[in-house]
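Marked as duplicate of an earlier ticket. Keeping the data here for the record.
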Amino acid sequence: MKNFDIFGFRASFNIDSKESFQTKIGGILTISLVLIYSALLYFYGKEMFDKKSPFGYEEVKYHNASSPDFYWDLKENKFFVGFQVMDYNSISLDTNEYLFPLFRLLKYEWKNGVLISTSNYIPTMKCNYTDLTVLNKRTSHLKLENYFCPNFTGIENATIGGDYDNKESYVLNFELSMCNADRSICNDIKKTSQFLDNNMVFINTIYSDITYEKSNIKKPFTTKLELKFGFVNTLKSLWEDIYFAKFELEDDVGYISSDIEKIQGFGKVKYDSFSDIRSPPSQEIINRNNFAFYACNIHYAVKQYNFKRWFEKIPDVLAKSLGVIKAIQLFLFFLYQFYVKYKFGIYLFNNLVIFDENDQENIDKKIKFQN
């Protein structure tokens, strides 16, 4: 019946007025744990404040046609692409006598199942007059005053974006064309062919390229000029497509709770190039339909590249440090139990076993030896 007694007396005792049996070794281990925990807090905390080990991931988001980011507004004349014609000695060429550098804004629209294309002529300007603040790094050897850029000042609906799957899409086009914008003047194909045959003529394309560095705290997006060149001759026509896209970073820089900062960038994501080998058409066909030895379509991609980055916070540092300490404490506790049980057994023996008074000297020696 005594097994059912819930009113029994709970027996307990203290050792030297303390609830646990303590030793000098245990005190040393406890102080060591405190020092290790302090060291962990310092190193993990320093890493947190230095922000050297960020976490993050990347995702691609496709724009909805109703989204304000579906089209890209070009009215501010921010630099993103430019073109230059030069010879073998890297000297800029004025090719209007042979080829006209032309920008056009192309609109594609589906009507009754038919894709209809219309174009709007865009004036050119020297690239050094564009807004270059978008570039984080400048390339000094590229003389922007020798490059053609589109000038959207005063142009209505100066946007690009969408693709052929959408009802409406806009593409910026650049050509080295035989005729001017309204086709009122067409150069002589024989004269142009002779010029291209007698000279090594290159078309240089500069564009804004963007890179993301997760470990770069101050400037995760770096936008700089990239250069690509092609060869223009009478045996082939060169066609290129450049795709630009928007980049966005959600940067969590909080130390205790989330503190989101958004950083945006813009740059090239794809560059396609191919050649069409053929002889130039007759002057009659050129006068009627025009002809381009080089053409480049500039697109704004329907997708956006999103990045998310975050750093360890103070609660993370405390939890990680405590986790390490708990593991060390468990290991030391396992080893220490053998030692403390041994010492506790000696303590009980010395204090509870009764000796004869004549053996007091031996008792004192034993206690001194065991301690």
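See parent ticket for discussion. The radius of gyration is 39 Å.
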